[in-house]
Write a structure and sequence with these properties.
By secondary structure, the chain is of the alpha+beta class. 19% of the residues lie in helices and 40% in strands. The protein contains six helices and 19 strands.
């Protein structure tokens, strides 16, 4: 899990543990994509999120197994993914009789034609510094959590004891830490604190790894937060399933979609530099955990390749068929006249 920290006006403090009143940073919603290139053992991790905070600037830390390549992703990538996993829409046409006077038929036909028209440091090494998607980013390699904390403090990134405990397992595994910093571009330093949520632009991190992974862990002092949602898309050459890396078992999430998908030209256009799988299998997972398990999630081939799709949505469009009020009388009159004529 990408961990937020923030900078208060009068000095740096952390918000992951116990932020001052009015200075919390919460992740209301998180959308992410993992594209797994099995042949090259390369993972492309794309993330966008909405933060609820009154802070003027804040940062967050992203752990990766190796040094990542950082790039901005198209802001529409999540929309494209949502469209790919959306339910099929089945349109039905139903013709409905609409009684009408004979004098209104011309107007009714004109109206039908119109309706049919379409609507349009020594212990901390800086591996890279860059600016991407409006964020200052620095990729760090550290030998111990304390040294990393000292470096972050010296560069205006607050670092609490909880974050130090959180980062320790990653540094023990020689993972890299990318520190991002976001500052509201429309708020001057002498203006009162802003309160609107911040929606960060999508960022892509590409890195080498033995297995695809999602950094799910949070600091141990994060309080439960109900109502938040994580939506993760997995794109690979086969169906993948998630499990915690500490052996605790499968990741308990909802999987409303998992199937092979066709042409990915639209998705590929939103992810320049990312090679799409030749036989793409797309999985959508949603997590609503108020408090997360203290482990990351790894993905492995699923034993069951059964496709899962959302139920189709049926829509019915009524087309009125004008039926004159006088028609029964006309038909009845013709029938009576013909019968009378035969009787003669």
């Amino acid at each position: 899990m990408v961990q937020p920290v923030f900078r208060r006006k009068e000095g740096p403090r952390a918000c992951a543990v116990a932020p001052p009143a009015g200075q919390a940073v919460h992740t209301n919603r998180e959308d992410a994509l993992v594209v797994w290139d099995d042949a090259r053992h390369l993972e492309h991790f794309v993330r966008s999120a909405q933060f609820d905070t009154s802070a003027k600037s804040f940062g967050f830390l992203v752990p990766t197994p190796s040094k990542p390549t950082i790039a901005e992703a198209n802001e529409h990538v999540v929309d494209v993914l949502a469209a790919l996993t959306a339910p099929d829409v089945v349109h039905e046409t139903r013709y409905v009789a609409e009684p009408i006077g004979l004098t209104m038929i011309p107007f009714a036909l004109v109206g039908a034609r119109k309706a049919a028209a379409p609507v349009a440091a020594s212990a901390v090494r800086v591996l890279e510094e860059t600016v991407v998607a409006g964020l200052d980013a620095v990729v760090l390699e550290a030998d111990d959590p304390s040294a990393l904390g000292d470096w972050l403090h010296a560069h205006d990134f607050p670092f609490t004891n909880a974050l130090q405990r959180w980062v320790a397992p990653y540094l023990a595994k020689k993972w890299k830490i990318t520190a991002f910093k976001y500052a509201r571009p429309d708020v001057a330093a002498n203006v009162a604190m802003a309160s609107e949520p911040i929606a960060s632009r999508a960022v892509r991190l590409s890195f080498s790894t033995d297995v695809p992974v999602y950094p799910y862990r949070e600091p141990d002092d994060v309080a439960p937060l109900s109502g938040r949602e994580l939506r993760l898309f997995l794109l690979a050459s086969e169906k993948l399933t998630g499990a915690f890396d500490d052996g605790a078992g499968a990741w308990p999430v909802d999987a409303p979609f998992g199937a092979e998908v066709g042409a990915l030209a639209t998705l590929s256009a939103t992810l320049p530099g990312v090679e799409m799988p030749t036989t793409p299998w797309l999985t959508e997972l949603t997590d609503h955990a108020a408090q997360r398990h203290a482990a990351d999630v790894e993905f492995h081939p699923a034993p069951d390749r059964t496709e899962v799709r959302r139920p189709a949505v049926h829509t019915v469009e009524d087309h009125p068929v004008p039926i004159p009020y006088e028609l029964p009388f006309v038909v009845g009159g013709v029938w009576w006249w013909r019968r009378r004529r035969k009787m003669r």
